[in-house]
User: What shape does this take?
Amino acid sequence: MHDNDEGSLSNGISHSQAYAEEEEEEKKMMHNLSRQTGFDLRSMIRTIKETKSYDTEQRREIVRLLSKQIHLALEYQTTMAKRRRCCSFYRHYLCALYFCTKLAYLLNVTGQFYLLNIFLSFSFSKLGIDWLNNRHSSSADTSETFDTAPFPRVVLCDFMIRQLGSNNHCVRRLYVKRYLQIANRYGIKSDLRNDKYMLDQFVYDYLKFDGVIVIKILGKNTNDVVMTELIAAMFDKYLQVRTRQIETTTSSGYRGDDQI
Assistant: This one.
């Protein structure tokens, strides 16, 4: 009995390690392909994870550099899309790559179901239905029905646990304070319609799909406080770009009036 338990435990460990290695390889593939758009996701994720151990001033400096890196990558995408028509896909390259990676996950899982049906020589997809039928059947012996090598009773479950310091409580006041600072700085509470317009412009015209994907990936690797500072820094960059565009349009309009 102990030999079977040890064999099941070793099989569970090997499957867990294989899954972790496969997931790491898929992440490397996406990170390497994302460099073509100017987004070095591996470097960004590593940098934003390190901000948890920094003090406030160091964290703000790192966030400022991250926002500058994202801003330059977004400008690079826009420039490449404007120069050549064949490069217009650069605006949504990272977004398409992200969904293709998720599609690869789905195809991988579906393929594993078919492979299990082949190797186990029975319909693995109907295993749950068969188990319920045997469970409710009075003639079937349900005690030893699924006590087989492919489905051992003792397995290793890989799951996440809570650690001291991982949970942040009572941060609502901090969010309110941060929101009031941003509201006081940009006049958010003055005109809600203008705010919605600027928010749409910030998301759809400045960040675009690739920028939103990058923000989402970085948000999964850090806390809400760092992401709030990063989005605020990105909004600063957007306001600077918008101000330059308005100044350029105004100056070109004045020149046209002078020529007339």
Q: What stands out?
A: Residues 1-13, 167-174 have pLDDT under 50 and may be disordered. Residues 224-259 form the longest helix (36 residues).
